[in-house]
């Protein structure tokens, strides 16, 4: 029922299995799955799956891929798919079973070169009995290579391997696992953690869709092409989970090998609740020199539709979707996404390359334009001044109640569609623009100028005149108003100010803008030596924090 060792005094394996089951919630959710999930979990490497097509019995470059992977100490496995569980065939293979690929070898028979793979059945028994197996006596070479003992390990010709196996799973180990100088050279790796959030950055997988540009984006720069492999008879191609192949045989254009891996985090434990993995994948776009200078913030995302797609992964309902790409040196944009807009999940994107590369998340630096914090000069109409003075009385100042009585009906009268500003928002406006919890005529003129500008911005991005903006439009409106926020802060604001229908009405927009102005003003007053560090006392921090 559980993993066990042939040695009665060896017990670490079931203990490790129990810990793994606790990590995911139960033994039940570990049932089935893919070999690569265990590879990745126990090594921290990056997994990829190659599907072998029966109509392509000898895909060029695959032997070289396996040889390179084993030289880099990658873990390699192979499976023969089955619709009825595990069963043994007449040739000694077990359908529906996972095998390890442990070595490659070339044998010359006259003018013919035979390419061999060494496989191992993890049971430690039940072996292939065809050509080149331990028992094969066709030339005697097979026995010389493998040794005639029942240890589960055997040699197999590459063509026979294609006929009997359906998938190859490779886990490329990270430099941390391999150590400073692994055999055959190491990988260079970047890791990014992210999350798709409904109504914010879960924009779906169709590049032509309106919301696609909201997906997380990562810029990849490849500068050094791989070394040419003179020995192989074909290009490595571009193998992914769909088994697609890249450039034609004999192409000598310098290329960089990049392995991209997208993992859904913390999803396996949800199997006990009947939930499955989301369908996810990623697109890779090429960024030309003319657009490169614009690619420093999310404001450049409007150019995404004009980019040339260089590659893409398949979109699969699997935990780990990976693709080995062969790309020319240059700049690229990697856009991971869920297939359906609105799907939510945590994800990890990892980038492996044989040569050095740079990779950064496309994000904005938190800042505010000067005009966003300055008081716009909008002369106050004489009627408004008189109305203010009548309500203010002899003290010539307003409290929250009078601010509500004035701002709500006047703002409503100036709007294209009926809008409300509630008492709670008026309290926030008094905290932001008033002095001592009240508002004189001078400070009211500041508030009124901002309100009119915010109203114009809101109308601009409320294109359907519904009186609300969606979360995507909110991000555009904040940028137009002069506030440049990184992805994490924008996500926090979106979650804070949208309603249950993922909409932001005018009052929520006003509250958000007032909050940003107050925070940026306080931070600018307490910057320490121009180093971007804000120093606040506990009382000052509480004052800023309680504005929400």
Automatic annotation (TrEMBL):
Residues 1-174 form the Calpain catalytic domain. Residues 449-484 form the EF-hand domain. The keyword Chloroplast does not apply. Keywords: Calcium, Hydrolase, Metal-binding, Protease, Thiol protease. GO terms for biological process: proteolysis. GO terms for cellular component: cytoplasm. Belongs to the peptidase C2 family. Calcium-regulated non-lysosomal thiol-protease. This is Calpain-12. It comes from Bos mutus grunniens (Wild yak).
């Amino acid at each position: 029922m559980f993993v066990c060792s042939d040695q009665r005094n060896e017990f670490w394996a079931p203990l490790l299995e129990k810990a793994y089951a606790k990590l995911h919630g139960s033994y039940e959710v570990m049932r089935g799955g893919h070999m690569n999930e265990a590879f990745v979990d126990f090594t921290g490497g990056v997994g990829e799956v190659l599907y072998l097509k029966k109509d392509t019995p000898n895909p060029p470059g695959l032997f070289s891929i396996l040889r390179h992977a084993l030289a880099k100490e990658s873990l390699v496995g192979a499976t023969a798919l089955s619709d009825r569980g595990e069963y043994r065939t007449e040739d000694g293979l077990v359908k529906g079973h996972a095998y390890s690929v442990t070595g490659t070898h070339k044998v010359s028979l006259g003018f013919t070169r035979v390419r061999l793979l060494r496989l191992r059945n993890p049971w430690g028994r039940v072996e292939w009995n065809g050509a080149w197996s331990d028992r094969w006596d066709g030339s005697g070479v097979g026995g010389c290579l493998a040794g005639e003992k029942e240890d589960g390990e055997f040699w197999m010709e590459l063509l026979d391997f294609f006929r009997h196996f359906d998938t190859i799973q490779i886990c490329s180990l990270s430099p941390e696992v391999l150590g400073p100088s692994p055999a055959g050279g190491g990988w260079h790796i970047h890791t990014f953690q992210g999350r798709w959030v409904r109504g914010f950055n879960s924009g779906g997988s169709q590049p032509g869709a309106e919301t696609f540009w909201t997906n997380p984006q990562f810029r990849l720069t490849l500068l050094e092409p791989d070394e040419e492999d003179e020995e192989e008879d074909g290009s490595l191609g571009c193998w992914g989970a769909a088994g697609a192949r890249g450039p034609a045989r004999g192409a000598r254009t310098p290329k960089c090998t990049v392995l991209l891996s997208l993992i859904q985090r913390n999803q396996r434990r949800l199997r006990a609740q009947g939930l499955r993995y989301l369908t996810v994948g990623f697109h890779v776009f090429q960024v030309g020199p003319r657009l490169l200078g614009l690619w420093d913030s999310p404001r450049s995302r409007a150019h995404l539709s004009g980019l040339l797609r260089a590659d893409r992964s398949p979109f699969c309902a699997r935990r780990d979707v990976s693709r080995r790409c062969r790309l020319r040196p240059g700049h690229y944009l990697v856009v991971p996404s869920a297939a359906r807009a609105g799907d939510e999940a945590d994800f990890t994107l990892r980038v492996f390359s044989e040569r050095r590369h740079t990779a950064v998340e496309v994000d904005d630096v938190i800042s505010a334009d000067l005009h966003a914090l300055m008081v716009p000069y909008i002369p106050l109409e004489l009627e408004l001044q008189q109305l203010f003075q009548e309500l203010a009385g002899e003290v010539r100042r307003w409290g929250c109640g009078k601010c509500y009585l004035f701002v709500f009906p006047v703002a409503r009268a100036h709007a294209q569609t009926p809008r409300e500003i509630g008492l709670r928002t008026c309290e926030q406006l008094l905290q932001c623009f008033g002095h001592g919890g009240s508002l004189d005529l001078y400070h009211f003129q500041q508030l009124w100028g901002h309100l009119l500008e915010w109203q114009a911005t809101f109308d601009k991005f409320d294109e359907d005149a519904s009186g609300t903006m969606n979360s995507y439009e909110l991000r555009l409106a904040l940028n137009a108003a002069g506030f440049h926020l990184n992805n994490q802060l924008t996500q926090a604001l979106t979650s804070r100010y949208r309603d249950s229908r993922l909409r932001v009405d005018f009052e929520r927009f006003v509250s958000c803008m007032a909050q940003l102005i107050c925070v940026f003003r306080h931070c600018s007053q307490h910057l320490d030596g121009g180093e971007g560090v804000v120093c606040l006392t506990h009382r000052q921090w509480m004052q800023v924090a309680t504005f929400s």
